């Protein structure tokens, strides 16, 4: 699966959707999901919580490991994906679609995101 | 370690063609998983799974005094293993600490009547075991031979595995009991067929020459497809053995524990003839375990969904009362599970108020007796 060109990417392997009415959707990339293996538990930030670019805001557990979840952008969480909380395997099966994690009302334009091409080269896939 | 420094099994190209995610395991580049590790786990529980275990370390011990040597070097009574049978045992240090856990197969007897044993060690300990056996062989009329490169090891595990293997072998599988092994052919090539495994299911481990490994793998893949056989990586092997309550060296077993500390004192056979390495220390350890029970290995089942990992503290009443040795989400139970050493006072099944410190939060856990999963026979 190639990395969708309408998304922007962090070096922590999160993606950020185009901003609509000040809100962007965040998830992890297919590359990251494959590296984790089956995700079994997603601890997501809470709605209303402030998140900061590059800082941890949750964690994803897979069979072999637990990984911190980083926010690629600063702002306030407006929604989390309850479907992923109930069925974390969505992160593996639909990382760029049904497996999105949370939405953020952006307070500052992110500074250090990559284009799809740049991310593909960064991740070496 | 870069990938080029790793050792590769005879099936390496096949794993890559199957799209396996590879991992460095004890210096070997091994398949971690091919697709979803949960699907692989469930295939072994319900149908069959195919594993490349060629990283395991085979050591052949032969000669008139081979049995006497192994009785001296290991804690079990190896001299009583019948031809065609296998036994789970351990090799300990002089101070009783566990160097490795092993399976010893008595493959056959040579023409002069002396036995031929194959000792199978964990990949991470194979050199240590080889060195110890070689050193302990001094004074015995026996030969210790490094046969790690002589064998590929393929396991077919799961309830469908007898039917799958039966279609490919001339061996009498009905007559082959659990922990037995005999030479035969699989897919037309010579193999040592053993009814052993590390998954908690019925299954077989097939030792073949490396040049035949691909043929055996492909034949099993084809024969097993109708029964749902899929290739399986080391990730699901770990969750399978964890559900089955089987110890893993480096987690439940180490040089700082004796078999008695690990709850496996039954593998130590004091009644056997002659001295053996560690006898004195193990006699003391057995006495200690009786008078003052050490920490006990127990099962823990999460009430929540956060997964305990090796090294996490087990807590009760705000005090640390033990340590997790292995933990994973259990596909069969649908909950995170762990094995842990806990103080004897907290080891009874159903002990209330036990938790695991998961990165600062005390998550509630139920104490259970091992194993978590036992197959229906």
From TrEMBL, chain A:
<dbReference type="InterPro" id="IPR000089">
    <property type="entry name" value="Biotin_lipoyl"/>
</dbReference>
<feature type="domain" description="Lipoyl-binding">
    <location>
        <begin position="23"/>
        <end position="105"/>
    </location>
</feature>
<dbReference type="InterPro" id="IPR002930">
    <property type="entry name" value="GCV_H"/>
</dbReference>
<feature type="modified residue" description="N6-lipoyllysine">
    <location>
        <position position="64"/>
    </location>
</feature>
<keyword id="KW-0450">Lipoyl</keyword>
<dbReference type="InterPro" id="IPR003016">
    <property type="entry name" value="2-oxoA_DH_lipoyl-BS"/>
</dbReference>
<dbReference type="InterPro" id="IPR017453">
    <property type="entry name" value="GCV_H_sub"/>
</dbReference>
<dbReference type="InterPro" id="IPR011053">
    <property type="entry name" value="Single_hybrid_motif"/>
</dbReference>
<comment type="similarity">
    <text>Belongs to the GcvH family.</text>
</comment>
<dbReference type="Pfam" id="PF01597">
    <property type="entry name" value="GCV_H"/>
</dbReference>
<protein>
    <recommendedName>
        <fullName>Glycine cleavage system H protein</fullName>
    </recommendedName>
</protein>
<comment type="function">
    <text>The glycine cleavage system catalyzes the degradation of glycine. The H protein shuttles the methylamine group of glycine from the P protein to the T protein.</text>
</comment>
<dbReference type="InterPro" id="IPR033753">
    <property type="entry name" value="GCV_H/Fam206"/>
</dbReference>
<comment type="subunit">
    <text>The glycine cleavage system is composed of four proteins: P, T, L and H.</text>
</comment>
TrEMBL record, chain B:
<dbReference type="InterPro" id="IPR022903">
    <property type="entry name" value="GcvT_bac"/>
</dbReference>
<protein>
    <recommendedName>
        <fullName>Aminomethyltransferase</fullName>
        <ecNumber>2.1.2.10</ecNumber>
    </recommendedName>
</protein>
<comment type="subunit">
    <text>The glycine cleavage system is composed of four proteins: P, T, L and H.</text>
</comment>
<comment type="function">
    <text>The glycine cleavage system catalyzes the degradation of glycine.</text>
</comment>
<keyword id="KW-0808">Transferase</keyword>
<dbReference type="GO" id="GO:0004047">
    <property type="term" value="F:aminomethyltransferase activity"/>
</dbReference>
<feature type="domain" description="Aminomethyltransferase C-terminal">
    <location>
        <begin position="295"/>
        <end position="374"/>
    </location>
</feature>
<keyword id="KW-0032">Aminotransferase</keyword>
<dbReference type="Pfam" id="PF08669">
    <property type="entry name" value="GCV_T_C"/>
</dbReference>
<dbReference type="InterPro" id="IPR013977">
    <property type="entry name" value="GcvT_C"/>
</dbReference>
<dbReference type="InterPro" id="IPR006222">
    <property type="entry name" value="GCVT_N"/>
</dbReference>
<dbReference type="InterPro" id="IPR027266">
    <property type="entry name" value="TrmE/GcvT-like"/>
</dbReference>
<dbReference type="InterPro" id="IPR006223">
    <property type="entry name" value="GcvT"/>
</dbReference>
<dbReference type="InterPro" id="IPR029043">
    <property type="entry name" value="GcvT/YgfZ_C"/>
</dbReference>
<comment type="similarity">
    <text>Belongs to the GcvT family.</text>
</comment>
<feature type="domain" description="GCVT N-terminal">
    <location>
        <begin position="13"/>
        <end position="272"/>
    </location>
</feature>
<dbReference type="InterPro" id="IPR028896">
    <property type="entry name" value="GcvT/YgfZ/DmdA"/>
</dbReference>
<dbReference type="Pfam" id="PF01571">
    <property type="entry name" value="GCV_T"/>
</dbReference>
């Amino acid at each position: 699966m190639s990395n969708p060109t309408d998304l922007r990417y962090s070096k922590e392997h999160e993606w950020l959707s185009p901003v609509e009415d000040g809100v962007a959707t965040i998830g992890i990339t297919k590359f990251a999901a494959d590296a984790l293996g089956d995700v079994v538990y997603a601890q997501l930030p809470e709605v209303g919580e402030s998140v900061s670019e590059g800082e941890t805001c949750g964690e994803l557990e897979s069979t072999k490991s637990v990984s911190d979840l980083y926010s690629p952008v600063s702002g306030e969480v407006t929604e989390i994906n309850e479907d992923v909380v109930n069925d974390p395997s969505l992160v593996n099966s639909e990382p760029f679609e049904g497996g999105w994690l949370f939405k953020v009302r952006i307070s500052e334009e992110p500074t250090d995101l990559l284009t799809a091409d740049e991310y593909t080269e960064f991740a070496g896939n | 370690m870069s990938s080029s420094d790793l050792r590769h099994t005879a099936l390496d190209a096949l794993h890559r063609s199957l799209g396996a995610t590879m991992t460095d395991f004890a210096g070997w580049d091994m398949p971690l998983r091919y697709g979803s590790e949960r699907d692989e786990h469930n295939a072994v529980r319900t149908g069959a799974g195919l594993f490349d275990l060629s990283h395991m370390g085979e050591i052949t011990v032969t000669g008139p005094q081979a049995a006497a040597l192994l009785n001296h070097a290991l804690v079990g009574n190896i001299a009583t293993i019948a031809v065609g049978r296998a036994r789970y045992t351990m090799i300990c240090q002089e101070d009783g600490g566990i160097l490795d856990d092993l399976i010893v197969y008595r493959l056959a007897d040579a023409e002069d009547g002396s036995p031929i044993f194959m000792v199978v060690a964990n990949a991470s300990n194979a050199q240590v075991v080889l060195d110890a056996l070689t050193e302990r062989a001094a004074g015995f009329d026996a030969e210790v031979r490094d046969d790690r490169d002589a064998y590929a090891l393929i396991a077919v595990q799961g309830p469908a595995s007898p039917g799958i293997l039966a279609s490919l072998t001339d061996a009498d599988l009905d007559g082959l009991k659990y922990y037995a092994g005999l030479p035969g052919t699989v897919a037309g090539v010579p193999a040592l067929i053993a009814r052993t495994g590390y998954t908690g299911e019925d299954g077989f481990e097939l030792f073949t020459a490396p040049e035949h490994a691909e043929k055996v793998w492909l034949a099993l893949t084809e024969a097993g497809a109708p029964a749902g056989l899929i290739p399986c990586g080391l990730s699901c092997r770990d969750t399978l053995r964890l559900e089955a309550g089987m110890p893993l060296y480096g987690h439940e077993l180490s040089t700082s524990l004796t078999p008695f500390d690990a709850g496996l004192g039954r593998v130590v056979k004091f009644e056997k003839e002659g001295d053996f390495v560690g006898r004195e220390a193990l006699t003391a350890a057995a006495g200690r375990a009786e008078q003052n029970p050490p920490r006990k290995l127990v099962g823990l089942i999460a009430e929540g969904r956060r997964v305990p990992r090796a090294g996490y503290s087990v807590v009760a009443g705000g005090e640390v009362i033990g340590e997790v040795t292995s933990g994973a989400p259990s596909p069969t139970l649908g909950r995170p599970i762990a094995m842990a050493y806990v103080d004897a006072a907290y080891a009874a099944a159903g002990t209330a108020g036990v938790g695991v410190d998961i990165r600062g939060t005390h998550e509630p856990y139920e104490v259970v007796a091992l194993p978590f999963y036992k197959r229906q026979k």
